[in-house]
Amino acid sequence: MSGRLASEYSTWKKLQQTYDVQHARLILKDLFAQDPNRFSKFSEEYVDPTDKNTTFLLDYSKHLITQPILDTLLSLAREAELETYRDKMFAGEHINTSEDRAVLHVALRNFDDFKIQEACGSWKGYTGKTINTIVNIGIGGSDLGPVMVTEGLKPYAKRDLTAHFVSNIDGTHIAETLRLCDPERTLFIIASKTFTTQETITNAESARDWFLAAAKDKAHVAKHFVALSTNTKAVTAFGIDKANMFAFWDWVGGRYSLWSAIGLSIAIYIGYDNFEQLLKGAHGMDKHFKETPLEKNLPVLMAVIGVWYNDFYGSQTHALLPYDQYLHKFADYFQQGDMESNGKFVTKGGQRVNYQTGPIIWGAAGTNGQHSFYQLVHQGTKLIPADFIAPATSHNPIANSKHHRILLSNYFAQPEALAFGKTEEEVRKELGNGASEALVKSKVFEGNRPSSSILFPLMTPRTLGALIALYEHKIFTQGVIWGINSFDQMGVELGKVLAKNILSQLNQPSDVTGHDSSTTGLIHYYQKHRKE
Ligand SMILES: O=P(O)(O)OC[C@H]1O[C@H](O)[C@H](O)[C@@H](O)[C@@H]1O
């Protein structure tokens, strides 16, 4: 984050040379054969420094690394002054330089100075009925975190409460959600850091219209609308009482905000005690990140291994593959977390980078992905590093845990198949003599496809908190190495500005001016065919 080009570091150059000379020889099958202790060397059990019951195992032995390569990768982190920048973040220095802000989501997990009271339960609607539905209206960081965590921690949910999340400006999203709601028993949580986001404000206004069509009296809005924001003025202008506003601060980045008041829907859905456990789990990981030597620092290890593939192997993407249905939104969440943080081509110092920065993050819950895109992961032409994530115990041990054993057998098998593959010789033996050459070749798995495995005892609020913070700090570490500002998001602005201009030109064809022929042609086609 010094803003220097990473490619100028001596360790970067050394890594490039190492890659050039060694990569053809970095074969997982051989690396495992040469060293029977490879697993114990390249795996680490995380034990929460504040709670010994929160643990998970990170196995990074199925990576195309040797100890000297890993040592050089860690030296790269040191040369980029990771430890200094990490300490600056925790100290509240303004490391978000373009916006001149501190980055202090970690302070929110130091929850002694942070309290949000439980808002539902005793909260009554305008006709005196209890609230049984919450609708969080927000987008980006004001949506994805609450969605991912409420899904992830569903087994802890209060069963008498339904939570919906509306994000898309597409009227279908709010319309379909409102069909499921009773205005007398629904609490709308308007979540927006800025309270100026077009999608959120438009959806909130439509929700308010829908509510008032039933409740009639504007005074009832106070019982059914609360706001989570940093912008008191805009909240009150919308008509939400200041007393119904849960505030937070500009040093909480949108994609790091589920720990703040933005987490209200989570706290209501799973109860405040469980929300506090989530924060504590993240706090434990913060402590680990802050205090553990880089050699054993899990987010740092994940980060530097990611840099190895991203910048030297030329991998374009990174897959997140949770073998846990509850985590089916995990990849969606970290698409924003990672890609909005590290999808930058300019360093903090304003230089164009001459290397790759943030990877494309994608993924789906196992085993669904296996029946969809794993063909390419196993036999395609691209190298796709992947994280396999699973709980040892399921919250739903139905059929004597038969489902879970089958799920986990796949969780263990896929990384094994990716790493070790299947040789031509093995295929030939299996098919016998008559098999065509083409068939033999098509059944070969080259292997040597790397992955990490993360295995934890049971999905608890505390474990999920630790896992999220693990990835947050991985993203931070990579941003420091690449010299970019991981905490602004200038790249989302241009499209917004153009959309605003186009919105004012949608009436008739003669209004459409100042565009290229493609954009003009598309708008004209829309104007010809719309029925409103
Ligand atoms: O919370 P809000 O101010 O409504 O912002 C919602 C989202 O807006 C933009 O898309 C930003 O790029 C995101 O980082 C942010 O999370």
Care to give the gist of this entry?
The protein is α/β, with parallel strands linked by helices and 532 residues long. The protein has helices spanning 10-22, 28-34, 38-41, 67-79, 82-90, 105-108, 144-152, 171-178, 198-215, 221-224, 232-238, 264-270, 272-291, 298-313, 330-342, 374-379, 398-420, 424-431, 437-442, 461-482, 493-503, 517-529; strands spanning 43-47, 55-59, 133-137, 162-166, 186-191, 225-229, 245-247, 317-322, 360-362, 386-391, 451-456.
Using only CA atoms, what is the Rg? Answer: 25 Å
Categorize the overall geometry. globular
Taking pLDDT < 50 over at least 5 consecutive residues as the criterion, the unreliable ranges are 112-118
Q: How much β-strand is present in the residues?
A: 5-15%
Number of continuous helical runs: 22
The average pLDDT is 96
Biggest beta sheet summary: 6 strands, mixed
Arrangement of strands in the largest sheet: 1-2-11-10-8-9
Which ligands does the model contain, each kind named once? Answer: 6-O-phosphono-alpha-D-glucopyranose
Helical amount: 40-55%
Number of extended strands: 11
- End-to-end C-alpha gap: 51 Å
Q: Which structural class matches the secondary elements?
A: alpha/beta
